[in-house]
Design brief:
- Helices cover about 30% and strands about 15% of the residues.
- α2 links the parallel β3 and β4.
- The chain has a seven-stranded mixed sheet, with helices on one face.
- α1 runs parallel beside α2.
- It is an alpha/beta fold.
- It starts with a strand and ends with a strand.
- The chain is built from six helices and seven strands.
Length: about 200
């Protein structure tokens, strides 16, 4: 079971395969892993203790600059575990930056989650992926319907009060849609990135 995988100097954390979206561009539809890594499909979700043990057993921390919650699922499906793991990672590897990659729908997934806990993160990257609710619904196909787009933007506006936020899009949009997304990020006062 591949809980962790490396890409250059980043260590990625793969703790769930569950996701409320079915994005038309999702890499899960194209491959079972990332680069030379083995399959990121989990036979089951690892426990907190299993994740901590696998983390503590690693010998490559001198080569790692950033730890990223990003696997073959939406990390915030396990929101409380993400916070517990972030605290563990920071306690054992205090010099490593920690980032969350998310679809920004945690309030729909887990309405009781306290977003202020994301202050534990060095940064949060949110998948914007569209410049309108209709286009977002078409390309991300969230199980929550059109309400998801507004919720994702509200999440970005709130979480920027606690940590650094970037809105990202897949580099397949038209130039006009890309520019519209850049403007949305600017209006929200957060960073923007093509991925």
């Amino acid at each position: 079971m591949n809980i962790f995988y490396r890409l250059t100097n980043r260590l990625f954390v793969n703790i769930t395969n569950a996701c409320p979206c079915d994005c038309i561009f999702c890499i899960r539809n194209l491959t079972d892993g990332m680069n030379e890594n083995e399959s990121l499909w989990l036979e089951r979700e690892p426990t907190l203790d299993e994740i901590k043990a696998a983390f503590n057993a690693r010998l490559d921390f001198c080569e790692i600059e950033e730890i990223v919650f990003c696997g073959f699922g939406e990390p915030m499906q396990r929101a409380e575990d993400v916070i517990a793991l972030t605290r563990h990672f920071k306690a054992t590897q205090p010099n490593k930056k920690i980032r969350l990659n998310t679809n920004g729908l945690v309030r729909l997934i887990n309405p009781a989650f306290d977003i202020s806990q994301l202050a534990e993160m060095d940064s949060v990257s949110i998948s914007l992926n569209a410049d309108t609710a209709e286009e977002y619904d078409r390309v991300t196909r969230p199980c929550f319907g059109k309400a998801a787009y507004t919720e994702m933007l509200n999440f970005a506006a709130e979480v920027k009060n606690y940590t650094n936020v970037t809105l990202s899009i897949v580099d397949v949009l038209t130039p006009q849609r890309t520019e519209n997304c850049r403007k949305i990020a600017k209006e929200l006062g957060v960073m923007f990135r093509l991925r």
